[in-house]
Amino acid sequence: MVPKNKGLGKGLGSLLGDMQGISGQPLVRDVSAEEAKTAQMIKLRDIEPNRHQPRKTFDEEELNELADSIRTYGIITPLILVKEKNHYMIIAGERRWRAAKLAGLKEVPAVIREYSEQQIAEIALVENIQRSDLNPIEEASAYEKLMNEYGMTQEELAERISKNRSTIANALRLLKLPEDVREMLINGTISAGHAKALLGLEDEVKMSEVAKTITEKGWNVRYTEDFIRKEYGEKRKKKRRAPLGNQIEYDKTEADLSVILKTKVHINRKQENAGKIEISYFTLEDLERILEHIK
């Protein structure tokens, strides 16, 4: 387990200097007063979003509120950018950049830094995680991208972003959901708890069917878990149960008992050498006769 006060590990901790760990503090440190003196005014048309940005949606109402603030007070904290061939790419401050465009600005203050491609991807992911900006699918997709593009294992990724490996593994499982269920999770129609319960079904068609029922009937997570366990749990257990040995002998014994007791007898085998015998009776006289015979 990665300690929560461990910060960002050797990788991010060393490359980002004053950045904080998972503590609710911003990942990319605020531009210092000294560094702010080096800020440049960069034209908005020369700035592009971070191509590694895992966040795909931005709240329009929040952007408009920020734009109103920028019209009144301007941009107080410079954006952090990296210089590329023909443009600058945002490392921190995409919301400010988007709001500045809404506010009608032509240029914004920015500090230029240097990072590698992998560093940029890691910064974008962890900054959003710390600020709780990502929906569960965006977060899982970002984990998958870092692992695939940079050959990172779940353990290595967990170390880099100060998360438990199990957190990474559970997030990645969400990518196994069918597309329509993913959309429900992105839109907030169902919660991550609902999604985790749905993954227990394994069959995508059933996942979609139950997800629709959740939204239609307003089931909470606990009710959803109970429903799936009762409706599909026992069926799955029966389906996976390995056949018990010597079944022919038990069938013969069952037939012999039926003849002796002159009624239907069923041997219900729970384990290889354990189970129960079910003796049927259809009238009170039948029951009395069977009891007398057993005595």
Could you explain how this protein is built, in words?
- By secondary structure, the protein is α/β, with parallel strands linked by helices.
- Helix content is 54%, strand content 12%.
- The protein has helices at 9-16, 33-36, 60-73, 94-102, 117-130, 136-150, 154-161, 165-173, 179-187, 192-199, 204-217, 221-240, 247-261, 284-294; strands spanning 40-43, 47-48, 79-83, 88-92, 107-113, 265-271, 274-279.
- Strands 1-5-3-4-2 form a 5-stranded mixed β-sheet, sandwiched between helices. A two-stranded antiparallel ribbon has the order 6-7.
- The protein is elongated.
Percentage of residues in DSSP E strands: 5-15%
Head-to-tail CA distance between termini:
63 Å
Q: What helical percentage do the residues reach?
A: 40-55%
Which architecture of the largest domain would the CATH scheme give at its second level? Alpha-Beta Complex
Question: Mean pLDDT, as a whole number?
Answer: 79
Gist?
The protein has about 300 residues and is α/β, with parallel strands linked by helices. The protein contains 14 helices and seven strands. It folds into three domains: about 10-170, Alpha-Beta Complex (Conserved hypothetical protein from pyrococcus furiosus pfu- 392566-001, ParB domain); about 175-240, no CATH class; about 245-295, no CATH class.
